[in-house]
Structure formats: structure tokens, C-alpha cells
Amino acid sequence: MTDKELFELCRQYGLKARTWRNKFVALLPEVYKRKLYRQKGYGSIFEFAAKLGGVSKNVVEDVLNLDKKLEDKPRLKKLIPKVGVNKVRVVANIVKKDDENEWVAKVKNMTKLALETHVRDIRNLDPGIGKPIAQQESV
Predict the structure, then answer these.
(1) For residues 55 and 3, what is the distance between their CA atoms, to the nearest angstrom?
(2) Is 90 exposed, middle or buried (0-12, 13-18, 19+ CB in 10 A)?
(3) Are 94 and 129 in contact (CB under 8 A)?
(4) What's the predicted TM-score (pTM) here?
(5) 98-120 burial: b if 16+ Cβ within 10 Å, else e
């Protein structure tokens, strides 16, 4: 096997590993709601995720918190298996139900870095966006 062939296999397998990891992570909120991890003998959702999917505690916490934020945004939630939890998390605090479709398109088409920059620009224009009502500045 040449170096080029070895590199190509690594690239292909790495891409597949990320794809399947994203799909696994997207299942965790439902596993948590059903307490499936307990039924299968795991002490916690964190142990379940680590042993079955090699997923860290931080990623599990992120996806469970994100699931709560996206309860009323099903189209954005459906992107997690495709683009990953980190990319969706970037926009989760500023998406409103009425502009969800616009953000879904942005998440699909923009890089994570571009999304971060876009969200930062929006927050600079309107500092109250994405903050809980109690923290928003009164005018």
C-alpha cells in the first residue's frame, strides 16, 4: 500500500467515523428521556455514551442542553446528525421559531467559523439577542 492509498483510507474512515459519531450523539437525548441507559445496565448516560460511542461527558452535556434549547425548533434539531452538535450549538441561542428556516440554511451552507463570526456580528448589532430576558438591557 502506498502512502497515498494509506492516506486516502484514513481520510475515508475518518469522515465515516465523524458521520456515525454525529448520528450517535443525536440519539442521546432520546436515550436519556427513555432512561434506556439504566435498562441496559449503565450507571449513567455519561457511562453509556463513553462505552458505546466513545463520547466525552462534555459532549453529552452539550447535546442534552442543546436538546432543551431546540425543543420548539425541530428542523434545527434534525441537523445535529448531519452537521454535528458543535455547529448547531453556535446558533442555538439566537434562533427564533419564526426564523428557524433561515438559520437551517445558514447552518447547512456555512462553516462553523463563518457561523461564529455571523452570530458575533448579529450580537454586536443587537446586544440583547441570545440572552435570557432577565439579562437583556432595558432601553
Answers:
(1) 30
(2) buried
(3) yes
(4) 0.80
(5) eebeebbebbeebeeeebeebbe
Judged on CB neighbours under 10 Å (0-12, 13-18, 19+), 133 is exposed
What does the pLDDT look like over 14-61, one tens digit per residue? 999 999 999 999 999 999 999 999 999 999 999 999 999 999 999 999
Q: Under DSSP, is residue 68 helix (H, G, I), strand (E, B) or coil?
A: helix
Look at residue 127 and tell me whether its pLDDT is greater than 90: no
Q: Which set of grid coordinates corresponds to residue 10? A: 484514513
**What is the phi-psi region of residue 84: left when phi exceeds 0, alpha when psi lies from -120 to 50, beta otherwise?**
left
Q: How confident is the model at residue 97 (pLDDT cuts 50, 70, 90)?
A: confident
Alpha-helical runs (H) found in 35-73: 36-39, 45-53, 57-69
